[in-house]
Amino acid sequence: MPEIKDSYKTIKHPGEPTLFKDKGSKFIGQAHPVLNEAEVEAVIQNLGSDHAKASHICYAWQLGVNYDSYRANDDGEPGNSAGLPIYGQLQAFDLTNVLVTVVRYYGGTNLGVGGLIQAYKTSAQQAIEASQIVTKTIKQKLYLNFDYPLMHTVMRIIKEEQLKPETQEMGLDCNFTLLIRKKDFKRIKKRFETVYGLTVKI
């Protein structure tokens, strides 16, 4: 069976802007943590205001804990000379929920498509390297409902599996919410399901 992927790489905070120069052109790169396309649009709009005189604002993003969707934008540069090289760096660093932007101020000398590809790639790489990359674990929730006599059994499994209850409610009965790593989820769920009288829900 293929191993279940239950972690992903992203960045913690917006990285410091970086500067790359080539033949008078300035390329200002920055990596931004984003969770959806609305956040992407907000960052691009802010950059448009901050860099009103820029020649181009090119970018690429990847979203989703399963690396579900991406987009690359050349913003008027020759086709695939800006957005795709930037996206290539997102892939190289294996990042998701990240937007990388490169703002270009034209310096009067054409770089040619090859030069542009190299410049945008380098700027994107520098932007990512200026960010703090973190690995996050994908977790799933499991809900337990049981009566007090089962408390010892439930707590023993929780301790053995090194789990931390996200919520615990003690009333007439007990209700726990557990966060479990995706790759361990089925196995641990099965352990709880074998306990007679314990109600287990996803």
UniProtKB/TrEMBL annotation:
Transmembrane intervals: none
InterPro entries linked: Impact (IPR023582), Impact_N (IPR001498), Impact_N_sf (IPR036956), Ribosomal_Su5_D2-typ_SF (IPR020568)
Pfam families, per the entry: Impact_N
Gene3D superfamilies assigned: Impact, N-terminal domain (3.30.230.30)
Impact N-terminal domain ranges (all copies): 23-128
PANTHER family from the UniProt entry: IMPACT FAMILY MEMBER YIGZ, IMPACT-RELATED
UniProt similarity note: Belongs to the IMPACT family.
Protein name according to UniProt: YigZ family protein
Naturally occurring in which organism (per UniProt): Leeuwenhoekiella parthenopeia
